[in-house]
């Protein structure tokens, strides 16, 4: 197996997700951990290995760095993409690309000018259940797709600072469901209608954001999509999909810490509450996403989740935000994506 | 138990549902079967008993007729309601009241002028599972309600003549989900957004109607509602509800002809396909609805499903139709319902 | 539908089960309620109708009595069977026939001498799920039967007086599983091995009886059977079957008061506790058993559960008792059943 | 983490299970692969690394070998245990210890004379579900244990040569269920009753062995145990446990390749067939078992599954064989185990 030396850009929450996965992958080698603040880089390098660096040019000039994994704050993604593309380094970038279509288009222009393999971290595509669901659909198990549904309910609202910087609930969270649905359906919506409310955390409403939303997408084939999101869920991180076609339906199940079934005086055939949150539920998917990146780079093929996929998902999420504010159906702006 | 003598108005499909249920109820007595065509009345009387009559005035003047069950074509409901109200007879009327708000308001005016016990046949309220769901919600099992979902998928599209006369998919079918949701939530939407498509039966689309819809309701409390309807479903009559609140979730399960679990070379823990259609799935609910009517009339209390409930459900369904056509959120017209 | 006039013999617990079912059946008419103590008969007649009688000869001579339903104490069954057979009355007798094979053989001799339609009240055969299970097996869904399992766990131990008079746990309770298994398998065991223990109610052990047992039956075909019984069960009346063959497996599910699925902070996909006990769980089966009796008598065919079935089940249960005491495999004594 | 250098003894089926798991474990290093035939050792070393050796004394004298993993044919286990114990090397030995209690006692004498950490490969204890089941039971979730059940049904009969060398179905397969049950219950049976049959593969019967068995164990506490084994199962490798106590019940669920739920014209809520066989189902457990061995050796504590556990399980399995032949309850011979 060909080994890729990686520079891990960033030392925040997502960097702590990728560090151990890089170390566990037999084809990846953590060469550099980069942070413009050297003390942060050194601390992370102490945990996961690799060489701590605070000089971007030096990182990208390092001949042992075969590719970069961008796990920095969202508003810096585009800058690092531009720099890495110019340096000719394959790029794995945590989602979202950015919160603005304009800046995303700048990143895409850079990738056009300096074509390097690029993969966006839509990790849920690499969850074994979601992948099995798509495979079943592609095999024709449910026939022609007519109605698709996706639930994503988080265990509890994030800190209000996170909400403020998130770009809004649709851009921050619904974007995952949007990407999954488009990837499974094999098409992107021509129109969206969304409704939002705030019933769990009044501070979120005070920021003009929602903590629960219902989104409808209309696909070019006529298929309809429902996405159900909530910032709070008493029983854990509720993640379900349901694909209904003219021959039948396939659903995915939630995950728990154990596979026991309990019977007692108050409840029967009961299961544990769900996995707590995305790190627990989608742990394997992050590893699989890096594996996809490794396989694509080493075999010189395009990785599964492209910059165009990221731009489209953002355009759809922004349309949802606008629909929820205006009460009208909105057509997503795909104009810049036509070169695909 | 006090016995009520009933006049069954009509001899069509729904009359054949109510006939045997009336006979099975210890407190109901089938006194008259009415149809303006005497041969139809006589045929039905031969099946279910009672006296065949074709003269409306005579039916309503009959001292043995304590109440009427209206199971005639929808566009005649209002006329019979007016006549029966004038005659002082308690009324059970199959849903919908009518397809037009103007005519519904005429019926309501008649009921105002001649107050008699009136019950609309929203039979799904009387399904034991739906009733248990509402009771669980009222007990506070899921806390404050935030998101409610209702699925109603029919096994196969109806004849095109039925579609033409149906008032559209929202008025014909979604109205059931709408009533259930309002009854469980204890509130009515301030705004609706709906999307429709036609992927199963092109003849339905040619009539300007939909054969699959996704509907979003916004409640005054902030709660959001998703209703999922389809005129076709490979595995039977799919009827599910999911009520999600800040303390948890309660769902209802589908019904089948047997309770066996099958394991073989291709599938495990498998169950039979679902009950075929509404007569099979909701058989008990029709009996229970008549039982509610009997109990309300004999104890002089209001039955569960009022004319106002029927008018509101129609107003919501019409708003859904309009939203699906315009792509805008629509406020239902409740004006006439304020006297409640 | 031909109507049968019935004499209900007995006014105890089981008579209170059969009374309302007889009244609800359109082809049965409760003509007489018999108890040698007239006040008891009169009290029951006050509840269910029929003529109270305390004179057995008069009951059997009554021309309006077309058949008898014996629901008296077990040790009087054989006497009433003999009397009714002599009088030429078709007989429905609550199980068990008796606790002694000698007395059962006396009843069978009477039925030989005076052949009348005879049905034993193995009501669980008439439970819709058990009937569907057998039908699936007969259709060949699981192929050749190899291993059959039956669970019957009661919610709580009976009063100690009941235990004393019960004939032992195998004769009182396991006999139901034995009959079901033989009926489904279409064969009777050549050998049984059983083990018993007493862990729930020490008073039962003090009587020399068990409150939990595990029984193994070996069938002539080679098929093996496991029966799992307990006098106590925290979550209700646990009733399950599992039939495993060379093509797959079919299981039956437990019943509950509602069909809701609950999700909260401590448990997910949880259901209610099970139906409390046999009256709740098998309510429909008693009605269906009377329906089978009615159908068999009016069409002059043999009812489903014969006296021979009852004798065989008793012989097997007695062999289980003996095996549990001796620790050896025991062959049931079928000698008297050969005439079948 | 302290690293242990391992000698993997044997190159057969189980060695191919352990080789990759040793390589994947951060604290284990595959130092030597031993087979008395050098070509076999070299071939395996080519696959998994390590130094191929055919000289047992040299292996045990190798200072880089900190411990041995014995995965040779069962009838050689005792010889290798004696040699490794004399050499002072910690031992992980694939189950069973041996098929004869006499030879097992020889191994145990060697371990008494030369005490080294010893762990028997009862891998199913290290399956996460079985471990969670035991933990739930130890937490008191079901109260006092009264009835325990274990199902183990294999997808298809093994080659007849395997059957001939297996020591019989109870010793080869039931021994796993026996060990799990004793480990969960915290006690060992005082008496066993077993029944066997041969309905799937007549060649197995011709060897005097069974291809399906039902086993009953009686525990000192009074608890009863049912074990259900089959050499054939149409829907895969059926692995279930059910622990019933005075407060409730806990069950474990089967595993599948995906977590999808399918609905179509013939079946609803259906799942895939089960994992094919033990390598697929218990893959993780082998890794976890080696992890337990590593943790025990490096922290100088006793590993979970002792030689005494192995001897007791064999004694119980042999008692089952005898019971199935004689039709009598048999007391297992634990005499040699008293020093525990």
Structure overview:
Four copies of one chain form a homotetramer. Chain A has 340 residues and is α/β, with parallel strands linked by helices. Chain A folds into two domains: 113 residues, NAD(P)-binding Rossmann-like Domain (Rossmann fold, 3-Layer(aba) Sandwich); 182 residues, Dihydrodipicolinate Reductase, domain 2 (2-Layer Sandwich). Chain A is built from twelve helices and 13 strands. Chain A is globular. Chains in contact: A-B, A-C, A-D, B-C, B-D, C-D. At the A-B interface, strand 7, strand 8, strand 9 and strand 10 of A face strand 7, strand 8, strand 9 and strand 10 of B.
In spatial order, strands of the major sheet of chain A run 3-2-1-4-5-6
Q: How far is the N terminus from the C terminus of chain A?
A: 31 Å
Greatest interface and its participating residue counts: A-B, 38 and 38 residues
CATH class of the largest domain in chain A: Alpha Beta
Name the helix and strand elements of chain A from N-terminus to C-terminus, one letter apiece. Answer: EHEHEHEHEHEHEHHEHEEEEEHHH
Q: What is the residue-mean pLDDT of chain A, rounded to a whole number?
A: 96
The parts of chain A where pLDDT drops under 50 for at least 5 residues are: none
